[in-house]
Amino acid sequence: ASIIGITKFLPSYPGFLFEHEVEGLLRVLEFKTRPLTVILGGAKSSSKLLLLKTFLKRADNILLGGILANTILQAQGIAVGRSRVDDEVMQEVKDLLLTDKKLHLPLDLKVARADLLTETGPIETRICAVGKVKDDEYIYDIGPETGTLFANIIAESKEIIWNGPMGVIEKKEFMPGTERVARAVADSGAYSVVGGGESVMALHKLGLSNNISHISTAGGAMLQFLSREPLPGVEALQIP
Ligand code: ADP
Ligand code: MG
């Protein structure tokens, strides 16, 4: 009723936040300035995969971390130990053009033997090259070499879309990868769009929110909007 129903009975308009979101996001869909870099991490792989597929054609760089990266590594037959992967998208990522030069997977990783769901004490961690993760280890963050690679690419970008942390930011041991990325985005001077509950939380925690051009509060709807998927509430208001 509140999203589309009312538009059938009354002249309807977006509120200020809605309008701000649409303007902020449309700006990156104009592809005005290049290079455009898309950074994807976090947990909900299926919604991020949609964005990955959309921008594989249009972005200049795609940087991957989080569970989507784990899943793609495993799909390529690279050892990920006990790391969380997303089986639902495993087959689909196998079919992607993963050899595309613009697609950047982690080069190194921060791993631990501890299962973070049960571990409460200090965590012993290790930096290891991709392919060297042991059977009893979990990938919890990108490594420093990857951080440098990603930061360098981000520094040269003129437009940036970022959704999803690079690792398990809830534990301080696995914050550095996301912090590197966040600082690079904030320092880039690019038109930057950041969305996703945890990604935005990381920016606030680091005190970098003011250096981001557009912070989206639209969550999954942001991903859908940027992927040009229909959104009933947007369509009802006949916004482009
Ligand atoms: P956002 O809210 O920014 O869109 P998501 O909700 O998709 O991000 O994912 C955030 C979650 O992803 C965080 O809680 C983080 O712990 C988790 N995460 C990121 N990388 C990993 C990893 N390698 N293993 C397990 N969980 C991860
Ligand atoms: Mg989230």
Notes on the protein architecture:
The protein is of the alpha/beta class and 240 residues long. It is 38% helix and 16% strand. It has nine helices and nine strands. It has helices at residues 16-29, 45-58, 66-75, 87-94, 144-155, 176-187, 197-206, 220-226, 232-236, and strands spanning 36-40, 61-64, 103-104, 108-112, 125-129, 138-142, 159-163, 191-195, 214-216. A six-stranded parallel beta sheet has the order 3-2-1-7-8-9, sandwiched between helices. Strands 5-4-6 form a three-stranded antiparallel beta sheet. Helix 2 (45-58) packs parallel to helix 8 and helix 5 (144-155) packs parallel to helix 6. It is globular, with a radius of gyration of 18 Å. The mean pLDDT is 93. Bound molecules: adenosine-5'-diphosphate (ADP) and magnesium ion. Adenosine-5'-diphosphate is lined by residues 41-44, 66-67, 70, 84, 139-140, 163-165, 167-170, 196-199.
